[in-house]
Amino acid sequence: MNITNEQHQRRSLIPWRVLGWGAAIALILTPLVAMQFTREVKWDETDFIVATIIFGIVGGLIELAVRLSSNWYFRIGAMFAVLAGFMVVWANLAVGLIGNEDNPVNLWFGTVLFVAIAGSIASRFRKRILPFAMFLSGALQVAIGIFVGILGSDMRGGTFTIVLSVAWFIASLFFWYARQKRKVED
Known about the structure:
Largest sheet: none
Radius of gyration: 19 Å
Distance between the termini: 31 Å
Structural class: mainly alpha
Order of helices and strands: HHHHHH
Number of strands: 0
Helix content: over 70%
Strand content: under 5%
């Protein structure tokens, strides 16, 4: 039986898929276990549904990235971008990046996600727009963090958002490497 390179590659990814989806399930179940031992964790059905949807989207996007390209730079860049977007959403839903989740400044982070998503769609996940879109997302994240710091609103949140922007910059760098590697192969 002849196994093509693509079939071999898919088979070799199966343990990673099991590990990734297993980790997502474990993270979703962690609060359920914690609620059995402490009153400080208080999740209701809505929290579990939202977490399941978010982890499903994250896992699905990573699966999509793996299927779109065999280029490891692209895949790693996509993972950083997806995880950066996840952290922006999760932190805002949980406690808010700036102040608490009711602080209207937290809505500004929607523009960061919009730039990343619009850039990904506009680039069709491959063209030269993708590294630029991720870089712009990181720069926008930094700008919001600096602006919050200047306002003196919540320096802790401002610092976290600047640190989080590093993930966007790393994604940009890996997408740029993927583009350079593709140029060499063409």
